[in-house]
Amino acid sequence: MQVAKFGELERAVMDVLWGHREPLSVRAVHEELTGRNLAYTTVMTVLTRLAAKNVVRRERAGRAWLYTPRTSRDEYVAGLMLEALALTGDRDSALTRFAHSVSTDEADTLRHALVQQTSQREGAVLRNQSRPITGSTSGMNR
User: How many CB atoms lie within 10 A of CB 75?
Assistant: First the structure.
């Protein structure tokens, strides 16, 4: 999956959207970007383009459109990281170099996430193995 790359203004708009739990109107996004001195129509155009790129969800609320991000900021950044990893010819080396470049706290976070992932995978395998086989193939009643 290719992750959309944001220009500076798109990134600012997405930061506003990611900073709220509720859907926002163009006006609400525009108001949060007042320090940038942007026209309302510029913000509207950016949101329309983000909707066309399928980055934000757009729904009608009366006469206005409301916008919400399709993914969280964390999911977006993880997608960028996976896309960057796909560019390397040697994923193992890239991952190793990355692991050596993070702080101790970040390494602990990665370690914890990997342990959780392993536990979840092992749990899924065990659940699949413990499912009873239904139906009788021998023809005998029990």
Answer: 12
Percent of the chain with pLDDT over 90: 70
Q: Is the dihedral of CA 13, 14, 18, 23 positive or negative?
A: positive
Q: Averaged over 96-123, what is the pLDDT? A: 89
Pairing of strands 64-69, 56-61: antiparallel
pLDDT for residue 59 is more than 90: yes
Q: How far apart are CA 6 and CA 18, in angstroms?
A: 14
Distance between start and end Cα atoms, the chain: 50
8-69 to CATH, choices 3.40.630.10, 3.30.450.40, 2.60.120.10, 1.10.10.10: 1.10.10.10
